[in-house]
Amino acid sequence: MKILKFVVLVTVLLAATNAGAWHDKTHLTVAKVAGLASWYNAAGPDLAKIKAGNIESYNHYFNNNAEAEVTAQMVLDQIERYNLRNKLLDFEGHLYGAIIASLRAYEKDSRSGKYAKYHLAYCVHYMADLSQPLHNIPYDVFNQTFHNQCDGVVEETILNEPQKIIQHLYDIPLSTNHFEADLAREIARIANLSRKLGYKLRAENRAITKEEAHVQLGHSASLFRAVLRRYP
Q: Taking Cα atoms as reference points, which of 41, 43, 50 lies closest to residue 17?
């Protein structure tokens, strides 16, 4: 029995590191629609995974094996795990905390006089991953089967059809005095929308449709557009 449990654990740990993300043009379009001047850097975090491995890849998903409701506190609790790799204690990933942590890194480098814009490219990338349903549910057989198909569902068309995302933009208020708390709340809201769509896809044993993807990407672009009001 102990051997079986060990094999299952190892399988889960290995599988947890293999998830991809929306493909490059999809990330670029979200950043461009949201208003990031250096939108062309938005695919960079996936390039970083080639060299940084799990140090970076854990920032791109939260497998949520308990299938629990995501809360603002859960988001905040993940912040300190940014850029850390611990397969035994953190095999689910920490996408939600990475969004806020990347903005803290931007502020830190800005205060010290460093060029900080790359951190915004990381942030918008993570925000796009937030709306990918399969980055918010367990990386099970269903997820592995449909993941790449979901990642690329709008890849060949979206850069030339940004209006497909623009039509789903909406205003998200983030207060100056309670910015991180508001942002954590909005991250949790979108995470819950995404995971519930993920469960729907799993129940119907199918990939996300283009129309569903456009709506999801609208959530990501709307949230990052709100962030840019504080970090222009």
A: 50
| Alpha-carbon span 217 to 210, nearest angstrom | 10
Q: Angle 24-34/117-130 helices, nearest 10 degrees?
A: 110
Give me 156's structure tokens. Answer: 């060949």
CA pair distance 144, 149, nearest whole angstrom = 10
Radius of gyration, CA atoms only, the chain: 17
Mean per-residue pLDDT for 146-168?
98
Spell out the residues 6+ positions from residue 166 whose beta carbon is closer than 8 angstroms to its own. 33, 221
pLDDT of residue 19: 60
| Rounded (10°) angle between helices 95-111 and 179-204 | 150
Q: Nearest CA to 53 among 22, 14, 23?
A: 14
In terms of Cβ atoms closer than 10 Å to its own Cβ (0-12, 13-18, 19+), residue 139 is buried
Structure tokens at 98: 């990475």
Q: Is the pTM of this model over 0.90?
A: yes
Structural domains of the chain ordered from first start: 2-228 (1.10.575)
